[in-house]
Amino acid sequence: MSVKSCVVTVVLYYLFTFDKVYLLTTSEGINTDPFVIDVSWNSHDYDLHTIPTLQVVSNPLLARQFSPIYKKIFANLKQLNADYARYAVWFPYPKLAVAELDPPSGLAQCGNVGQDFFINLSCERNGGVISKIDFASYGTSTGACGQMKQGQCHAANSTTVVERMCLGKPKCSVPAFVDLFGDPCYGTVKRLLIQVQCDPPQNNTYYNFTYLDTMLEDFLDATDGHSRIISFCTQPTWLFKQDTPHIYPDNASLVDWEYPVGTELVDDTMQALGDYYGRLLAWYTRGGFIDEYGRKHTSNYYYNWDYTEIFNEVEAEHHMTVEYYTRAYDAVVQGIRRHTNNYAMKYVGLALAFHQFDWFRYFLNQSNHAPDIPLDMISYHFYASGNSRTNPLDWEPFFSQLDTFTLQVEQIEEIRKILSPNTRTTIDELGVILTDDNTPGAPQFPPIYWNAAAALYAYAWAKISRLRIDVVGHSQLVGYPELPDLQLQPQFPSVALLNWTTGEGSAKYWTSKLLIDTVDIDNDQAVITRTTDTSGQNIFCQAFVGINGRRWVLIINKRYANVDVFLPGATGGRMQIVNEASGFGPATEVTLTLSTVTLSPFSVAIVHMPTASAN
């Protein structure tokens, strides 16, 4: 095939925020003659086994308390009808991810907040009152409950103010306001720390499900009737050894990238870790739990889901070794069973960011686990990357990066088949992360990016399906750049499937829906498919046959250029295509009057072939 000289056309691409315009260039086409797709419809290639799905990550745009579009987001999730959607309750927003942010403190009750926030104290559980103020300081005091120490900056009236507001009362709310305490050190960031006791005495824990509940409710409602994977990714930092307690943001929508502190658990038996997860699962699946002091906490939740994933990217987030993680995995399974008596729950292990084969060899060896610990499923992740946020030519290498990853998948599969052949696999984070994605003010990518990332996911699903991986999850439903009106810092905008302003689906979303609606893993089989694009650099295609004469072909344009393809026998068939023209709408559907099709840059098309009698 000869390569046609590029005729450069200037195209205006508007960002979906509609506040900037980019001038980009695109070539008119790369091939004079169409690439021919040659399908051997009667030649079996492989059975289709791989489920396309997505990842949903907790963040403020999903939360009822912060998001103006959360209803639209979950409506779109429901519309996908996805099986094995992964819900990741992840650390950057600790109050959205951790149910017990502060450790149990025995008879002392404590609070620690930043300036302009409130400490809420209560002794009313047993009809009691606040009987003693052990510590109060507005300034730069530090320390955990029972170990609070006054700093160099301290408002001398701190104890007097707190006694006046709290002493002898069942409960009180103390604001960390300069107007209340005065300013003991002008220009210095200040905090309010208080420790009190109750009469009669009460043991104190700090469980708070305010934000976790609403997002999980909405996720489970939107995916009702489907298999789900729930990943409570983040462990409370106080479970880990650290020199000083980590101070998490008082503002629930403020990001905290430093939250996963510590590499070694305080309790080396890991029972406390297992108990945390056991109580967490009991809250959502058994109507409540018994806390560290024997007190019943009632939720009235009796949810069911198929898989619980244990942690996320631990080789990065807590720098665990595979040996340490394997012990932690076992402890969490045992803790969940201990608190829920649920032995039917299935588990997903690893969730690795990197693909170190030694991790798979160790974890998948049953002899490295405690007795009766299931190895139901493993997971790992892949993200393509690019050096430019605005140049579409820089996104063509996404596909070769995926090819390299596919070779790693093959090697991991060899390990799994030898050590634990009944263990399933989900690649539950797969997508693109562009450079400087979480940098405030980073250049916004043009709309054609959605098509490039969508094409990468479709290509990944198809390539990985040949390896019979069980599930491939598109990452992720919601991300966003800096959103000043909502006071939100960037959260991986390039991974989003939805428009963060309106909640509408991007090309990534509609490509996922196209695959989910089309793929029939119970009946479809891949057949031998070849093309005259022998290098494979321009297009990808794979044909499938199903029941009742169903035949369909997935075609992907891997280039930032128009590509012509010829699919013999396609005339009279139906094509669904996600491309620039489809924008934030569903795949465009057309009846083919010719068997030659022009695919615009990074298009994803499915051609439903006419029945054999129609040819």
Automatic annotation (TrEMBL):
List the Gene Ontology MF annotations in alphabetical order: carbohydrate binding
Q: Cross-referenced Pfam families, in alphabetical order?
A: SUEL_Lectin
Report domain SUEL-type lectin positions: 119-199
CDD domains attached here? Gal_Rha_Lectin_BGal (cd22842)
Family matches, as SUPFAM superfamilies: (Trans)glycosidases
InterPro entries per record: GH (IPR017853), Lectin_gal-bd_dom (IPR000922), Lectin_gal-bd_sf (IPR043159)
Which PANTHER family is this protein grouped with? PROTEIN EVA-1
Which protein, by its recorded name, is this? SUEL-type lectin domain-containing protein
